[in-house]
Recover the amino acids of this structure.
């Protein structure tokens, strides 16, 4: 079987939900499922392959392994073995697949994070997640009752995936489809999520060193979910047997030293727009311990070769990947070293396209701010205004004339001249008072207009309209109080 290693970098936040349920708090996987890579390749290559497409993407001729996170040093991380347990009131970690449970000590199983075996200990790799709220948009407005949460892996997160096939020509076509241009992965691909870059990596997953033979025992670490089928009934099976891994009848599963967790899910098929058949699987990180006559170095090498293509069903989607006696399980008390996850810097977006609406919004915001300042000046000018004998309709007329002059491009001087002419007329002069008296409403209004700082005629007419409206509102308040 020919295999190639892919280096995947998220160029934008990406969503890989743990379950397809739409109710409750969403949680994201911290890896990229192999089925997601399969779908990305099929979307570009299915029609071009013709009859071979079914063989490649549905019958497992090409195996798309899960994309696993990278450590700070660029090494591929593995899921935390479920046989590891930490003291609840301490820091010691025990691998219960080989160590005895300490008496009088409460232990808690380690289930999160990823691990890399190094010279100085076990490096701990955590993948960052970001939570945010979104809403569905309908006709330019928020859709009623469609507020939802999203948990995503951030842009810059790096992964490594193995693509394998017995047909090297077919494998080359798949690799070219994935690496020719950027791809989109995960959910909400039509929105801002899922953009990623893929390239062929030079390095591959390091082979596990040959450990000394373990008398009467061999342990397997599930690197991905494991889906088994009962050959007699065709139904799912959650309890593995030695035959699943190519071992003889003299080998049996040791349930006391095995640590298994299970889950079931129905992967959503984006092309068919409906769920596929339900998967009942042993989850990644499970440790399967088998008891038997023991293995020497050659026997361990043969076992690794036996399980390398994968175990169980749905191998094309990345399920069934295991490691025999990996370095992570070499110590009874693993020495954990906490490290961050290596994440590349975001790619610069470059200059944003110029949108004419931005200039419109900016001008509108500036106009609103200026109008607020003019309003404050109008309020200050109206504080001591003598409105005795005036009616709201008279002020409303002045406000309307000011607005008309502003819209028609009138002159400030002509507006004041017309006001003086109105105040000097018979009936109008009686209510506004003589311009010769400083306390008369007409004289006070003209003085207030004259005090407005030299500015554009448009600002002046805005001030005149706001001042008349403010005095009119004061009059209405007095009339209501009486």
């Amino acid at each position: 079987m020919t295999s190639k290693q892919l280096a995947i970098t998220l160029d934008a936040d990406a969503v890989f939900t743990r379950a397809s349920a739409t109710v409750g708090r969403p949680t994201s996987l911290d890896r990229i499922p192999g089925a997601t890579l399969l779908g990305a390749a099929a979307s570009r290559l299915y029609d071009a392959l013709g009859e071979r497409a079914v063989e490649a993407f549905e019958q497992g001729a090409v195996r798309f392994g899960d994309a696993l996170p990278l450590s700070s040093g660029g090494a591929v991380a593995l899921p935390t073995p479920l046989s590891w347990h930490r003291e609840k009131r301490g820091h010691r970690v025990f691998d219960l697949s080989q160590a005895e449970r300490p008496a009088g000590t409460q232990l808690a199983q380690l289930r999160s994070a990823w691990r890399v075996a190094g010279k100085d200990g076990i490096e701990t790799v955590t993948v960052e997640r970001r939570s945010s709220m979104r809403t569905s948009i309908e006709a330019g407005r928020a859709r009623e009752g469609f507020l939802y949460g999203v948990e995503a892996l951030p842009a810059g997160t790096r992964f490594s995936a193995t693509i394998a096939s017995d047909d090297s020509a077919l494998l080359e076509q798949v690799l070219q489809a994935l690496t020719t241009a950027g791809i989109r992965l995960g959910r909400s691909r039509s929105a801002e999520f899922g953009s990623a870059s893929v390239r062929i990596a030079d390095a591959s997953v390091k082979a596990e060193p040959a450990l000394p033979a373990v008398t009467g025992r061999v342990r397997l670490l599930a690197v991905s979910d494991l889906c088994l089928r009962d050959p007699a009934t065709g139904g799912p099976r959650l309890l593995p047997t030695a035959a699943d891994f190519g071992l003889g009848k003299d080998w049996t599963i040791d349930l006391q030293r095995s640590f298994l967790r299970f889950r079931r899910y129905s992967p959503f098929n984006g092309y068919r727009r409906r769920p596929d058949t339900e998967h009942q699987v042993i989850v990644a990180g499970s440790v399967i311990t088998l008891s038997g006559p023991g293995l020497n170095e050659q026997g361990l090498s043969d076992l690794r070769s036996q399980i390398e293509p994968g175990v169980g069903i749905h191998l094309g989607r990345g399920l069934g990947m295991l490691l025999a006696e990996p370095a992570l399980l070499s110590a009874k008390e693993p020495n954990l070293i906490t490290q961050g996850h290596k994440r590349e810097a975001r790619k610069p977006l470059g200059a944003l396209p110029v949108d004419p609406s931005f200039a419109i919004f900016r001008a509108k915001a500036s106009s609103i701010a200026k109008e607020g300042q003019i309003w404050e000046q109008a309020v200050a000018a109206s504080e001591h205004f003598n409105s005795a004998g005036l009616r709201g309709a008279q002020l409303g007329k002045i406000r309307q004339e000011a607005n008309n002059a502003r819209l028609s491009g009138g002159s400030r001087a002509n507006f004041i001249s017309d006001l003086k002419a109105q105040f000097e007329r018979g009936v109008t002069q009686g209510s506004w008072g003589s311009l010769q008296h400083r306390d008369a409403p007409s004289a006070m209004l003209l003085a207030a207009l004259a005090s407005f700082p030299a500015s554009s005629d448009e600002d002046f007419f805005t001030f005149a309209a706001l001042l008349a409206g403010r005095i009119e509102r004061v009059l209405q308040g007095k009339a209501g109080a009486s």
Observations:
- The chain has a mean pLDDT of 83.
- The longest strand covers residues 141-152.
